[in-house]
């Protein structure tokens, strides 16, 4: 029984840790993120399993984590507030040729990261970027400058 | 019998600025979150420093030693224990502790595993 409670609490603790550590830009994980994921995964295993190494324990804990995940995902859709806490909000990094320096500093993002995403969108210079937004999943989405005025 | 509708009209539920792309940025919330993050990092740092010192066991603060003035008995033990983890108790006995070639060691409560 205690193992199931441990798994439940462990799930929320990991969600919290990952949220605090923050999102890093990029569509793919860099080696940097790999280390974090595997290391946390391995260490969490010690705490979750403890001295109850059994098939029953594994099945029950996996089901518990499934439940915890389902509950959190469901609660997110019910409460806007919770959704903001769990996922964060998209953040504008660059708009109208001006950097949001405060946001960049807090999110530990450099202009190179934004440029990488701009290249990905087929842009050649940062000057062609109308707006760069750090999405909730860590991706940077780029809106290019409009060559002609937009139609209403 | 009326069937439940499975579709709803799309509303502008995500905030947007100047009729441009909807971003849904919430800077007020984000600033609060950054402040919260800073507090959490401070707490994390404190936890690690305390752990290194041994406040949660296995460190300088956790180590304790008691000995009698004449050196008959010298006990090294861990002041702070961890649940379900083994710990080491070292008892060093001097010559005066041996009476008729025997040593008597009594303990109030012993729980042995493994």
What is the string of helix and strand elements of chain A? HHHHEEHHEE
Quote the beta fraction of chain B: 5-15%
Structural class of chain A: alpha+beta
Q: How many individual β-strands of chain B?
A: 3
Our measurement of the CA-to-CA distance between the termini of chain A, rounded to an integer number of angstroms, reads 60 Å
Shape of chain B: elongated
Number of E strands of chain A = 4
- Total helical segments of chain A: 6
Report on this model:
The complex is a heterodimer of chains A (152) and B (114). With 152 residues, chain A is an alpha+beta fold. Chain A is built from six helices and four strands. A four-stranded antiparallel sheet of chain A has the order 2-1-3-4. The longest helix of chain A has 24 residues, at 55-78. Chain B is of the alpha+beta class. Chain B has a domain at 63-97. Helices cover 24% and strands 13% of the residues of chain B. Chain B has one helix at residues 27-53; strands spanning 63-67, 73-78, 90-93. Chain B has a three-stranded antiparallel sheet with strand order 1-2-3, with no helix packed on it. Chain B starts with 26 loop residues before the first helix and ends in a 21-residue tail after the last strand. Classes of the chains: A alpha+beta (152), B alpha+beta (114). At the A-B interface, loops of A face helix 1 of B.
